[in-house]
Known about the structure:
With 202 residues, the chain is α+β, with helices and mostly antiparallel strands. It has a domain at 47-64 and 83-198. It has two helices and six strands. Strands 1, 2, 3, 4, 5 and 6 form a six-stranded antiparallel beta sheet that branches. Strand 3 (158-165) and strand 4 (174-182) form a beta hairpin.
Amino acid sequence: xxxxxxxxxxxxxxxxxxxxxxxxxxxxxxxxxxxxxxxxxxxxxxxxxxxxxxxxxxxxxxxxxxxxxxxxxxxxxxxxxxxxxxxxxxxxxxxxxxxxxxxxxxxxxxxxxxxxxxxxxxxxxxxxxxxxxxxxxxxxxxxxxxxxxxxxxxxxxxxxxxxxxxxxxxxxxxxxxxxxxxxxxxxxxxxxxxxxxxxxxx
Length: 202
């Protein structure tokens, strides 16, 4: 009989196994961080896209000419058509969703189905029917309260469109705001160059 050699089938040492476990642990931690950041970015993209859409709606409403309905006598001229911003809209929902989604109510007179031809969400022609993570606001002539940092003040002749959220249900809110103002000299609406962001992943 031939004697078996003990060292032909040598296994892994304890040090080698510990190194492999440590590498797997580091890779798992990086993967978890990356997935969390990806999920948070996917949620914040809702706010950025929606604020952009509200801003475009405000700009489009301003570009539309509005004229008073008049009955003119023979030889008379109508009033000059004008451009004006939509009036403020009620926040939707009433309170900031804290770590949950809110389903907008599509019933006439509720949520995004409020306003008139000159004010509110109907003037902006903006609506959402899918569940949302953020509270959406549109204010004409004033700034959205609560955001930190410095951003341009649109003043009495401007507006701000914003999304306020609290994805992780803590005491801090995140803000995504874009505004615009009407230039008194030219009468043209100028929009902010980008969305102002405060506490993006809160």
